[in-house]
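Internal ticket #5521
Category: modeling
Description: The requester needs a full-assembly model to guide mutagenesis choices. All entity lines are attached below as received. Residue total reported by intake: 684.
Assigned to: D.W.
Attached entities:
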Amino acid sequence: MARAHRGPSQEIIFTPEMTIPKLFLQTVKKYGHKKVAMREKEFGIWRPITWQDYYENVKALALGMVSLGLKRDDKVALIGDNRPEGLWAEMAALCVGAQAIWIYQDCLIDEVQYIVDHSDAKILVCEGQEEVDKALTIKDRCPKLQKAIWDDPKGMRNYDDPILIPLKEVQALGRELEARDPGLFDHLVEQGRGDDVTLLFYTSGTTSAPKGALLTHSNMLHMGKNLNRVDPNYEDDDFVSFLPFAWIGEQMMSISLELQAGFTINFPEEPETILENIREIGPQVMFSSARFYEQMVRTLQVKYADASFLKKRMYEWALDVGGRLADLKFAKKQAPLWLRAAGWLADITVHRALRDHLGLSRIRNAYTGGRLWAPITSAIFTPSASTSSKSTGRRRSPASLSSIVPMTSS
Amino acid sequence: MAATEERVADQIQLTVDNIHMAFGGVAALVDVSLEVYKGEIFSIIGPNGAGKTVSLNCINGLYRPQRGKIFFEGQDITHLRPYQRASLGISRTFQKIELFQGMTVLDNIRLGRHMHMKTGLLDGMIYLGRTAKEEIRHRAFIEEEIIDLLEITHIRNKVVGMLPYGLQKRVELGRALALEPKVILLDEPMAGLNLEEVEDMARFILDVNEEKRWQVTCVLVEHDMGVVMDISERVAVLNFGEKIAEGTPAEVQDNPRVIQAYLGEVEELYVTRR
């Protein structure tokens, strides 16, 4: 098996043989039980999953899928909210050498049917009852679909369709297969090559039917590498995964960058609790749609409108100070001492509290991509960031940085 | 529903035997008898003032009927106080929300579990050890079995008075469930809810009724005929304090006395929601 080395700059050097599963195994070896790979808030508690747990679950699931008849180059479609099981299932499919297709969780039945059928998916990984209902509705129109795996038992008591199988049973099948053929998993992972197609992303289909875009292991890995080169991410960073896995940006962070930087992924409890959960985690790295940041600003503006006279004046003053500091910073000029002092005061009185309320108290890099955001968004975030010692206060669009991926390996 | 047949259907859990309840000269219940089987959803319907809530209040112990007896699992509970009935496993929700408006969702639900608390005030002052363990155990139950089931994770720490009506209704169901009841009396759980909230509530009732973990017998007082006819196994109809019919939803709908007394015309049966 080709090995990736850590070069002098701590960057992973890729050979053409390098794939996501191979890098996964290396990262697991490196951290084992010593480091938390992901956390999920469940029943009100953040529950940690170490890299070793991540590996055990993926292995059992991958071999379970093999028992269900999955082979190299088969397709696995996945639908559901961001959760550890979703990521395990994706990684499991990749380890087998199959290609994974994430479907947006709010897709209508016809759209799900189109993507499942068009991609030749053999297995559909569902979350709970809602997704299972979709799977059962489309199964007759998707003859290539053989199994639907689900993991959330809520409301599933009366379902007995033979196409359905719980994730735990798949993992049990996998463990049986592992006992019979211990080297199989490593063997499957070794067969992969960097230029194998690994993920399919369906376009939104605004002009005609959605088209599947093919991404190889190299594509995915270089995305993370290039992003890491511009802004290094560290293994003790926290990242909150809440945007759909079907979006390339989330894949870049949760698969590619996660394996390379080794940071911890945090999964919110429910879609409704995202903002609250972000505040609890206080991530260093954030990658989100412009709309998400705009929503934060809107919340802020509403609160500002409701605030008392004194608080309003304080906020305006702090925003002004931060804005001046930001201008000087962008112009690469040294700020005068009085302004720096005012910046410090603005930070401890206003900006620090604001960042804390938005869950940005530890933020170092906040990315957005896809489209431009309303100017007001930077007008509010950059001043706050400029008074902080941690964040850069710059705004970047990784869409232009790393999504267009060079096929060269350094 | 498939699960229905698997149930122990012929076991009577709750018997209301000829109860008579009058307020001054107004007879609210006149010799009403009901039998509720274990594991079923039993609905009581009737026009306004028919005595539906009064009958729930009698079962629950808030009112004491002048005549008649009430049996729960073979035991005569007619003379028990409401809290004694609660400790036997009879829980309820109210038509008008009766939550503690100034407390959080979690605290309200926790309150429903005080029946199961073994440690007392003195233990609470020391807290560490026994009391802490007990509290954690109860919290785990609330989180895993109630908050997750009712999908109220996002509001667990919100003050109840700030929540929309539909969510408050859900919290009230949560508090009733915290008792881990054998029978739950639901007084108009759908009243004031929009269509989506009604569907959610109906699903929760079915979950509580069917899920292996719960399997709670439900006695439902409800005006939303769509829901009543969809989810109940049997329906009793009250009119001016008298029981005029009882049977499966289909039987009740075809009963001419019911049509005449309560529903006016057959067509109006589904008018409320459909």
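Resolution: model delivered.
Comment from assignee: The CA atoms of residues 122 and 144 of chain A lie 6 Å apart.
Ticket closed.
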